[in-house]
Amino acid sequence: MQKGHEAIVWFNEVTKNDIPLVGGKGANLGEMTGAGIPVPPGYIVTANAYFDFINSSNLRPSISKALESLDINDSKQLAVVANSVKEMIMATPLPTELASQIKAAYEKMGQGLVAVRSSATAEDLPEASFAGQQSTYLNIEGGDEVVEAVQKCWASLFEARAIYYRVQQNFDHLQVGIAVPVQKMVQSQASGVCFTIEPITSDPTKIVIEAIYGLGEGLVSGEITPDLYIIDKEGPAVLSRTISHQERRLVRKNGNSASGPEDESGNNYWQPVPSTKQEQQKITEDDIITLAKLAMLIEKHYNGPQDIEWAKEENTIYIVQSRPVTALKDASELEPEIEAPIMLQGAAASPGLATGEVKVLQDPSEIDLVLQGDILVAEMTTPDFVPAMKRAAAIVTNRGGRTSHAAIVSRELGIPCVVGTGEATRLLKNEQIITVDGTHGKVYNGKVTRNVKTSNIASIVREAIRTKTRVYVNLAQPELADKVAARNVDGVGLLRAEFIFSQIGKHPRYMIEMGQQEEYIQQVYEGVLSFAKAFHPRPVVYRTNDFKTNEYRDLLGGDKYEGQEENPMLGYRGVSRYIKDIEVFKMEIEAIKRVRKDYPNVYVMLPFVRTVDELKKVKQILEDEGLKRGPDFKLWMMVEVPSNIFLIDKFIDAGIDGISIGSNDLTQLILGVDRDSEMLRETFDERNEAVLVALEKAVTTAARRGITASICGQAPSVYPELTEKLVSWGITSVSVSPDMIGTTREIIAKAEAKLKIK
């Protein structure tokens, strides 16, 4: 539609291109309505109305002030701030004219029961799911009640979970708007979700349908473990059915007939399912096929895999939402089952293998108990659990299916998840060590591993998608080495040393003073060894330590050796430090030499090289210590300072085997933008013309001079169009985060096919 300053629009007036006006959910509802998909009718209170409300009521500065010094990892502070912002919004009356418009649209729609749903303008995007961050209110009736529900949806934009997630995804709180679709309520006898791709293996030939009795919120929340139907798109034909026991369902409250606990809107309640139906299939075979055909139609319309919500009322199936699938695993990455006694079994919800210490949570208020690397165990998860999920190595729940909150968020985080075990919180005890196999839905006591050599797995998966441009991975944590090495990846393009040094926990100068040089060298050696061994013979490019002064100060003894700098990002870091503090650098070199005795696949990459003279001096130090360029030892340089671009030929003349572009620092320094600045977030963009000119010069010069060129910043993981440009310029490798390996490989394959690169 032609975008103006509308406060109210109808579904048939908007399309998928109207996300800034009506949010992801609203845009998809409009798009499907226009495509003839059976969507319950409705209208949308636009993001314009929300922004007008925030600005005209003078709430913006108050919200900004409340959030400016917030530490999102302090759960208690986060909850207090979130509640205060929500209270500000709810205590401020809506403009009279807007309230009247909302009521008038409700009357025009025919009144009756409606669902009032949140639709943030940064929601249901291909790059971020924002699963369950804002509120939904079902079975709302009456003009005043609809107005109140709209305001509650606005306030839910500042739920603690939503604030946390936006910070994690680098979204500006006050730049994200929220629209509110008001939709005719479907009184579903059955409801559920449908994936047009198998969400665990990413098999595009399969459709996965989950179904429960009653309203769909019981499924998405994880309260109910659903039926699971697997459908082959060819036909379509039902391949398998897993029927789940269901004792209760969420239904609309009807007069005085309600009994049992209510949902958050107060308009629905949990009703017992008759015993004769508890073990039955929730929808008919005809319903399954009808849903599959609708799903394929929607997937074709959007030209990509979809996550669809549906509801059945009487004999009609309605589609109430569709969004892109945001977290996919390379289907070729086969992981064999473990041969060991099974302790617990449930639904495979997010692939991978992880071992850790159990932390059983009874309530979101206990999330601070979960530390980095723990296994989070709960009845189910809600968006309030996300901060703990972010720290967890894996998730195990009693309830829920493959499309529950726990499953969706785990796949997005890239951690293993097993749901619907039934008794995890009873059988598992705090501090118990367990292994979670999210690929096969199994939990084992103690630490166990797959009964297959990593190299065998790697040889299988590398036979899948092949590209001339190599796909490397960025890694930091040694415990992930074996898992990621089994993926369809060509090596480690960026091994960040900083995590290893953080684990040591002591300033290197302090350890020298205490006579602990050997301990320091040994710990660095062990950290790097795990990567070298897992990936051998594939290359592991180790970036030498790039701690800044403030990070060094945080280590034990650090305040004695580190001064205060106004801007550590531009301060005493990178090779400048190595030249001035050779003794510490030599200990790091010694650790690398020890690893290379058995695993010569480890190469060195130098960070933050400001001048050609600095590069020459550090090269001399390396050579004096026995690390000299040759057939079995390569030296790379990070390209992250503008001088690297201007003098790229002179840096190459100094003698390096390859470059790796750190697009984060390079963009920051070319544009003069602090990448962590909330106010300048929109300006920080690797696709800026000036940055693209720099990237093209670096890559094409490297190609002309016969050295390798890679990129290891965040950009390739975020912007597929940039990856295509890099391939066209002649980049030899792209290094990305583990969750983007399969996606990046596919992007590169398509780009190479388009450019006829073989």
From TrEMBL:
Disordered as annotated region, ranges: 249-281
A single MF term (Gene Ontology): pyruvate, water dikinase activity
InterPro entries, A to Z: ATP_grasp_subdomain_1 (IPR013815), PEP-util_enz_mobile_dom (IPR008279), PEP_synth (IPR006319), PEP_util_AS (IPR018274), PEP_util_C (IPR000121), PEP_util_CS (IPR023151), Phosphohistidine_dom_sf (IPR036637), PPDK_AMP/ATP-bd (IPR002192)
Matching PROSITE patterns: PEP_ENZYMES_2, PEP_ENZYMES_PHOS_SITE
One Pfam assignment: PPDK_N
Chain intervals with Polar residues compositional bias: 266-278
Keywords: ATP-binding, Kinase, Magnesium, Metal-binding, Nucleotide-binding, Transferase
UniProt key word Cell wall biogenesis/degradation: no
Domain PEP-utilising enzyme mobile: 372-441
Pathway annotation: Carbohydrate biosynthesis; gluconeogenesis
Membrane-traversing stretches: none
Cofactor requirement: Mg(2+)
UniProt-listed Gene3D superfamilies: ATP-grasp fold, A domain, ATP-grasp fold, B domain, Phosphoenolpyruvate-binding domains, Phosphohistidine domain
GO BP of this protein: gluconeogenesis
Record field: catalytic activity: pyruvate + ATP + H2O = phosphoenolpyruvate + AMP + phosphate + 2 H(+)
EC number from the UniProt entry: 2.7.9.2
The protein's enzyme class: transferase
Domain Pyruvate phosphate dikinase AMP/ATP-binding: residue ranges: 20-333
Record's keyword annotation contains Kinase: yes
Family as reported in the entry's similarity comment: Belongs to the PEP-utilizing enzyme family.
Record PANTHER family: PHOSPHOENOLPYRUVATE SYNTHASE
Protein name: Phosphoenolpyruvate synthase
